[in-house]
Specification:
With 392 residues, this protein is mainly α. The chain has one domain: Alpha/alpha barrel (Mitochondrial carrier fold), CATH 1.50.40.10. Helix content is 65%, strand content 1%. It is built from 14 helices and two strands. A two-stranded antiparallel ribbon has the order 1-2. β1 and β2 form a beta hairpin. α2 crosses α14, α3 crosses α5 and α10 crosses α14. The longest helix has 42 residues. The radius of gyration is 25 Å and the shape is globular. It starts with a helix and ends in a 7-residue tail after the last helix.
Length: 392
């Protein structure tokens, strides 16, 4: 006899009755991230275009030359994208967002709450220190796991099917043979998430999926500011910690959660935004064709040899950005300090709603799951008391 029939449990209550807090955190985080990704995808595309456009400077005779700015501001960038690519362009990279946010926030919230519990068991009494280090550990875990997905997302969002960077490829194209590497027409041109993954792996190698990992890890400072601030503000506004909510919590409680979400995200974004520009520049540039560095290290060049034997041609351009420090210096020298805040206004308009939707959804799902758990356990207890369950 099924438990659903004998105990009157819904499928959710039956699952929640035996589920652990880690499962609740993973599911709530995944749903929250998924929802915010869909809602804010167009703003994410606009932000990425603004951050990346300085990295598409054409190259002429080994020198970087200037070009006019194609994207400017929220509305201006939106008009360019819509004119060139239509509504579909506003949702470019949605696939990686869906694939990325699900594991990112599932891993993040699970590790974050487990880390808090572990540190509390080690007799740490300073709640701010616990929240700070838990957010660092959770952020590092989710970043390493999902970085390849975010690289693909960033590339899909920053490319344009007919935009200004279409003919700026400075990397050699492959021959038109069945075994040749995929031809990439602009700095890159991908048709889908799987197409991007295939082309990146075959033409640039496995390391391309971890482009920008260092600044992404530096971005842990973002969550180190955001979530301790959120926990502090939520406690002040509602009297309860993250994920804690009773059935009788009313409108005032939700206003407190909303306020804590907005304020903590604004604080974190303002303090740590430049690293996002550096990360985007590193992620959106193509790596050299594998083998070029090896050939150049052997001294092979395109110049004819004095002995009459031609050298192999291997004079492919090197990446414009190399590492966090060099990327910082290059952007500062070529574009000035304002470039580190390119798209910050759009980022605020995207990041704040995204964080708000994520946290509100997380809190709502956690409340729903805890309610389903208590109801499921209550119904099971009633059935046991009334001896409804059959004897084994």
């Amino acid at each position: 006899m099924e438990l659903h029939d004998t105990q009157g449990l819904t499928p959710l209550q039956r699952w929640a009755a035996d589920a652990s807090e880690s499962r609740f955190n993973a599911l709530s985080g995944a749903v929250g991230g998924f929802t915010s990704g869909i809602v804010t995808c167009p703003l994410d595309v606009i932000k990425t275009k603004l951050q990346a456009q300085g990295g598409f400077t054409p190259v002429s005779k080994g020198r970087h030359v200037g070009h006019h700015r194609v994207y400017s501001g929220l509305l201006g960038t939106a008009r360019v994208i819509y004119r060139e690519e239509g509504l579909r362009g506003m949702y470019r990279g949605l696939g990686p967002i869906i694939l990325g946010y699900l594991p990112t926030w599932a891993v993040w919230f699970t590790v974050y709450n487990k880390s808090k519990k572990f540190m509390a068991e080690q007799n740490l009494h300073n709640q701010f220190v616990i929240n700070f280090w838990s957010s660092i550990i959770a952020g590092a875990s989710s970043t390493v796991v999902t970085n390849p997905i975010w690289v693909i997302k960033t590339r899909l969002m920053s490319q344009s099917s007919s935009g200004y960077n279409r003919e700026m490829s400075v990397f050699p194209r492959s021959g038109n043979t069945p075994t040749s590497r995929p031809t990439i027409n602009s700095p890159w041109h991908y048709h889908s998430t799987l197409d991007a993954a295939r082309k990146m792996y075959s033409s640039e190698g496995i390391l391309s999926f971890y482009s920008g990992l260092t600044p992404a890890l530096l971005g842990l400072t973002h969550v180190a500011v955001q979530f301790p601030a959120y926990e502090f503000l939520r406690k002040k506004f509602t009297g309860q910690g993250m994920g804690e909510m009773n059935d009788d919590n009313g409108q005032t409680h939700w206003i407190g959660v909303l306020s804590a979400s907005i304020m903590s995200k604004i604080m974190a974004s303002s303090a740590t935004y430049p690293h996002e520009v550096i990360r985007t520049r590193l992620q959106t540039q193509r790596r050299p064709t594998p083998g070029v560095e090896y050939l150049q290290g052997l001294g092979i060049s395109s110049e004819p040899a004095t002995s009459g034997h031609p050298h192999i041609k291997a004079d492919a351009p090197q990446p414009k950005y190399r590492g966090v420090v060099m990327t910082f210096r290059t952007i500062l020298r070529e574009e000035g300090w304002r470039a580190f805040y390119a798209g910050m206004g759009v980022n605020m308009m995207r990041a704040v709603p995204a964080a708000t939707v994520t946290m509100m959804t997380y809190e709502y799902v956690m409340k729903t799951l805890h309610h389903a758990q208590s109801e499921g356990q209550r119904k099971r207890a009633m059935c046991l008391d009334e001896r409804i369950l059959p004897e084994p």
